[in-house]
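Input/output pair, single chain:
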Amino acid sequence: MKDFKLFNSTSIGQLELKNAVVMAPMTRCRAIGNVPNDLMVRYYAQRTGAGLIVTEGTSPSINGLGYARIPGIFNAAQVAGWEKITQAVHADGTKIVVQLMHTGRISHIDNMPEGAQILSPSAVKPQGQMWTDSRQMQDFGIPKAMTQADIETAKNEYVIAAKNAMAAGFDGVELHAANGYLLEQFMSPMSNLRKDNYGGSIKNRCRFVFEVTEAVAKAIGEDKIGIRLSPYGIASDMPHYPEIDATYDYLSKQLNEQGIAYIHLVDHSAMGAPQVPLAIKETIRNNFKKSIILCGGFDKLTAEKALESGLADLIAFGRPFINNPDLVNRMKNDFPLSTALNMDLFYSADEKGYTDYPVYQPQTHESVA
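Output:
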């Protein structure tokens, strides 16, 4: 039987992992009141076959709570809720990092608590709509262009969130600089029209990302930090621009200099988005000397090929973990994967389509909850 690297122990930063399978971050919208709850504890505990779990996007600020029912990590109740989750995950020998996701302009005020603001580097309205529990689908609005004071506040919120993550028992944090959220909004000349030190050149547009990374590293250590990137991604109204390759070439070189633990590179082409060229993946791989996680449309065999080629050190799986809580065991033993995936329940509020997917029972060839 072939010895798959995918299922062998490995490491990322200072973390020793039982395998090279990562559970990708996936927004699931079960955090009623933006506080992690017991239903979420069960969800994550069911999926501890992975060597590393990256949580769903979690806001460092009231201003980053763009979607309905997403969790935060900026108050005591949220920290306590997450602590139950980290304890449950660690009990099965899995490591877990929290993805810090400030949604920026991808938001709607109906989803946010009183006093929150929709912020972005520039007052550029994104195309599209956002679900709200109170009024269903609503158009995005025009965000407030961040002042220097807003920028300093946001950086401090990331730092506080990272410290809260350590208090909650997380093994690290992943900065979400992909999919059109705040950090990528600064990086793209389509959403960043600033004329100051945070806009214009590639160096200036990447400045906020590096300042956040540096500030978080000072707070918790660079070996506890990863970052998610999505070059050529079009999620959340991120049109292409001529300097994409040059931007991610510069970005990955500078992140390497900062010494963070990993880059998590996502390619959504399996879901119909434009394909991320192999050349930019290779550029990032060559520039960044620590761990690379690749995510997007992998199965067992293509994951192994990416690991063997050296293009990736770990492979993240997203949707297959939704209806296959025992995904790693199924792949390792060549058990069939479930095809019962109810997309209508991805972002609903209860256990249906969340914690009620069964594990595979080889003795009876049936799946039971």
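The chain has a mean pLDDT of 96. The chain is about 30% helix and 20% strand.
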